[in-house]
C-alpha cells in the first residue's frame, strides 16, 4: 500500500508564488481484532503492519509470548488485521470490552497506558556499555535510513539495534507506532532484547520508556528531548537515557559514570 501521496500546493518563497506537487505522508486507520473481536483503531503509516500489531500487543500486555499468536490475517486494503491468539485468562477477554482510538501519539491521545505499568517493570541491572563516539556513529547510520522523512518531513523514525549496528528500522506518523514496529520485528525474529538499544527521532515520554522497560532494553538514544517523568523512570528502572544526540553532541541524563 502507498505510504505517501502527491497533493497540489502553493509554495511561497522570497515573495515568489509557485504551484507545485508535493509528497505528503498517508495517515491510515488500521483496526486490530483479537479472535474476531474489535480491539483498537490505530492511526498509522500503512507499512510494517504485522510488526506494528505484534509490538502493540506486547506493549499493552495482551500477549507475553510470541507463541500465543496462532495466526494473523490482514484484511483487504490493509484496513484491518485479525489476530488469532490462545485464550489465556478472563482478564484478556475483559480487555475486549469497549473500543479506543489511538492517535499518532504526537498530541493528546487515548491509550491503554497507565504509569502504574512502570511499577510492574523489573529494574534493569544489565548495562550496555557504549562510548560517545559509538553513539555518534550509530546516529549517523540511523539518520541515513530516514527516507520517508526526507521525502515528506511527516514521520518519526525508530531503530532497534546493538552497539555495533542497527537491526531493525521503521518510520511512522507516530513515534509510538514506529517504536512498536521495531519491537514487533524483534519479537517476530525471536530476538533477545537485553543487549539491544533503541534509537528514536521523537520525544522520549514515559510511555516510550515503559515500552523499552517491558523488554528489558537498557539504553535509549534520541535526537529529541526526554520528559521529566521519563528521566525519573529511567533512573528508577535502570535504563540509560541519552537525548539531543545530534552530530557530536548529546545529553546524558543518568548513569553518568558509564560515559
Walkthrough of the structure:
This protein is an alpha/beta fold and 259 residues long. The mean pLDDT is 89. The relative contact order is 0.14. It starts with a strand and ends in a 7-residue tail after the last strand. The strands form 3 sheets. A 6-stranded mixed β-sheet has the order 9-8-10-11-12-13, sandwiched between helices. It is 26% helix and 32% strand. The chain is flat. The chain folds into 2 domains: 28-117, Ubiquitin-like (UB roll); 132-258, Cytidine Deaminase, domain 2 (3-Layer(aba) Sandwich), CATH 3.40.140.10. It contains 7 helices and 13 strands.
Please supply descriptive tags for the structure shown above.
single chain; 259 residues; alpha/beta; Ubiquitin-like (UB roll); Cytidine Deaminase, domain 2; 2 domains; six-stranded mixed β-sheet; five-stranded mixed β-sheet; flat
The percent range for helix content is 25-40%
The number of distinct helices, counting runs of at least 4 residues, comes to: 7
CATH architecture name of the largest domain: 3-Layer(aba) Sandwich
Q: Which strand order does the major sheet show?
A: 9-8-10-11-12-13
Decide which structural class fits the backbone: alpha/beta
Strand content: 25-35%
Q: Give the N-terminus to C-terminus distance in angstroms.
A: 43 Å
- Overall mean pLDDT stands at 89
The shape, in one word, is flat
Low-confidence stretches: none
For the record, what CATH class of the largest domain applies?
Answer: Alpha Beta
The CATH superfamily title of the largest domain: Cytidine Deaminase, domain 2
What CATH calls the topology of the largest domain is Cytidine Deaminase, domain 2
Give the biggest sheet. 6 strands, mixed
How many beta-strand runs?
13
Number of domains: 2
What is the succession of H and E elements?
Answer: EEEEHEEHEHHEEHEHEHEE
* CA-atom Rg in angstroms: 19 Å
Amino acid at each position: 500500500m502507498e505510504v505517501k501521496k502527491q497533493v497540489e500546493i502553493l509554495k511561497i518563497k522570497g515573495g515568489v508564488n509557485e504551484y507545485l506537487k508535493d509528497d505528503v505522508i498517508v495517515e491510515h486507520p488500521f483496526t486490530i481484532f483479537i479472535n474476531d473481536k474489535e480491539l483498537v483503531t490505530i492511526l498509522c503509516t500503512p507499512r510494517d503492519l504485522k510488526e506494528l500489531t505484534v509490538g502493540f500487543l506486547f506493549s499493552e500486555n495482551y500477549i507475553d509470548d510470541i507463541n500465543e499468536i496462532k495466526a494473523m490475517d490482514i484484511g483487504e486494503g490493509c484496513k484491518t488485521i485479525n489476530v488469532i491468539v490462545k485464550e489465556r485468562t478472563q482478564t484478556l477477554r475483559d480487555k475486549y470490552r469497549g473500543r479506543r482510538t489511538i492517535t499518532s501519539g504526537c498530541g493528546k491521545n487515548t491509550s491503554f497506558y497507565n504509569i502504574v505499568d512502570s511499577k510492574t517493570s523489573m529494574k534493569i541491572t544489565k548495562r550496555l556499555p557504549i562510548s560517545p563516539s559509538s553513539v555518534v556513529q550509530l546516529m549517523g547510520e540511523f539518520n541515513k535510513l530516514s527516507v520517508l522523512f526526507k521525502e515528506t518531513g511527516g514521520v518519526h523514525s525508530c531503530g532497534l539495534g546493538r552497539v555495533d549496528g542497527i537491526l531493525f528500522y521503521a518510520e511512522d506518523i507516530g513515534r509510538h507506532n514506529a517504536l512498536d514496529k521495531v519491537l514487533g520485528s524483534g519479537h517476530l525474529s525471536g530476538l533477545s532484547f537485553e543487549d539491544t538499544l533503541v534509537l528514536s527521532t521523537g520525544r522520549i515520554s514515559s510511555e516510550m520508556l515503559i515500552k523499552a522497560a517491558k523488554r528489558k532494553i537498557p539504553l535509549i538514544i534520541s535526537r529529541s528531548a526526554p520528559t521529566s517523568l521519563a528521566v525519573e523512570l529511567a533512573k528508577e528502572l535502570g535504563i540509560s537515557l541519552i537525548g539531543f544526540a545530534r552530530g557530536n553532541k548529546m545529553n546524558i541524563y543518568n548513569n553518568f559514570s558509564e560515559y
